[in-house]
Write a structure and sequence with these properties.
Helices cover 82% and strands 0% of the residues. The chain is built from four helices and no strands. Helix 1 runs antiparallel to helix 2 and helix 1 packs antiparallel against helix 4. It is elongated and about 60 Å long. The termini are close together. Keywords: Membrane, Transmembrane, Transmembrane helix.
Length: 144
């Protein structure tokens, strides 16, 4: 029988996974295809959405760590969730560089992109591409 802490961990991992998939891989790229959404508007929306997502992710990670303290999971689940938490920490470290770059685009009088996507953006996406399978593996391991 699954205890409360364990059930909470399962729910949190899959909520976290769903949020990342919905926002990073659905909302983020699609908003730029909407009629009338300029680069400046899209970046403004993206900054708000990703700041909120990262805040919720930190809360979810804290809940997971607390749940693991009460009911430690198998090693596979702990390592996978640990990888996801480390990826999130990396993304939080990259956010200031992304904010500086989006500030420059938002300040451009013609709203043009001053040089394509930044390395920081690619780094953020790369960390997201590691975080998603880590959460999936962690969730499945918690269910096993």
């Amino acid at each position: 029988m699954m205890g409360t802490a364990h059930a909470t961990a399962v729910a949190v991992v899959f909520v976290w996974l769903g949020m990342v998939l919905a926002i990073s891989f659905l909302e983020a790229p699609l908003k730029f295809r909407a009629p009338g959404v300029t680069l400046q508007v899209g970046l403004g929306i993206g900054r708000l959405v990703f700041r909120a997502l990262n805040t919720v992710e930190v809360v979810l990670a804290a809940i997971l760590l607390a749940a693991f303290a009460f009911d430690p999971p198998r090693t596979t689940a702990m390592v996978a969730v640990g990888v996801a938490v480390v990826m999130l920490a990396g993304q939080l470290a990259i956010r200031p560089a992304l904010n500086r770059r989006s500030d420059a685009v938002l300040a451009a009088p013609d709203g043009t992109d001053p040089g394509g996507r930044s390395r920081a953006h690619y780094g953020y996406v790369a960390l997201e591409l590691v975080k998603v399978p880590a959460l999936l593996v962690g969730g499945i391991a918690l269910l096993a």
